[in-house]
Design goal:
Elements (H helix, E strand, L loop, with lengths): L1 E13 L4 E3 L4 E2 L3 E18 L6 E4 L2 E2 L1 H18 L4 E8 L9 H16 L6 H11 L3 H4 L4 E4 L12 E5 L7 E6 L9 H11 L3 H20 L3 H20 L10 H15 L4 E4 L6 E5 L4 H9 L6 E5 L6 E6 L1
Parallel strand pairs: 5-7
Antiparallel strand pairs: 1-4, 1-14, 2-3, 4-7, 4-8, 5-6, 8-9, 10-12, 10-13, 11-12
The protein binds ligand DP6.
The site of ligand DP6 has 15 residues, from helix 5.
Amino acid sequence: MQATAAATSNIALVKYWGKRDVALNLPATGSISVTLDRLTSRTTVRFDAALDGDVFRFDGEAAPAMGRRVSGFLDLVRGLADTDLCARVETSNDFPTGAGLASSASGFAALALACDEALGMNLSSDQLSALARRGSGSAARSLIGGFAEMRPGVAADGRDAYAVELAPPTHVAMQVLVAITTTAGKSVGSTEGMRRTEETSPFYAPWLDATRADLDCMRAAITDADLERIGELAESNALRMHAVMLGARPPLLYWTAATVRVMRAVQAMRGEGLAAWFTIDAGPQVKVLCAPSEAEDIEARLRGLEGVHDVVAAAPGEGPRVLETRP
Ligand code: DP6
């Protein structure tokens, strides 16, 4: 009845920004990501007949807003497992939450796996990914190790909207350097940001078309393990996502001065012949994709930039894992 699971963040190489169904959290397009070996969420779930409500603790403290989202997710799990037991959920991250490091991705992936294990549901990988998607769209991809593609599906009930493996972590020799430019929470969350973009950005339809085309190119680049094409496409797709965000009203501007400084620095490094490309999610951090042989040099340069507080060096990683089960 109790299980602990760990899952890591993933970085989208072709972004998910828009939904075809809000209630079921179905993405408007597919997306492609790489799951990292760092930026871990660790979650323990205990279903307990003695509880008369769900209890949620984040880093040992009550977190009411997150707790409501977790309770909504537990309702789905209870429906699937046909139980009415309440649960105690304790989670912790080894990185700052809510600042564009996709804590919801690792968090809901770890929670989905821990629930499956605690209740003995024996869900398949596809089912687990689809379940995690209900918590957060990007979490569906953190259920898969290495390079993952989220399928948007066509079914109205979302049963075919889950992530699948494109390639194992060792398939492409690359590193991801996460340049942390602030540890403050983001201003507009992804769910609200997507809604605003869908409703007000005149670039939304072209963004979806461009993303569908990028998916085909990225899939081929990953198959060929071609870091240069992966990097170029990832950087361009990220900038297009920020363009559609900027087209919203009020506009979604997630960048700080330090964000732009890192972007410029990465472009300058490329000018010097280094293999480095950036991508940015719904926050100010910049993730730099680079060749492992140049990672140390690039990390040192990033650390030297004004406004860069820290750099987390990550590599493609395995999927989530169960750490412990207890009766
Ligand atoms: C910019 O998965 O956080 O990181 O499904 O509403 O929880 P919800 O959104 P979320 O959005 C992630 C957006 C992104 C791009 C990506 O990871 O694909």
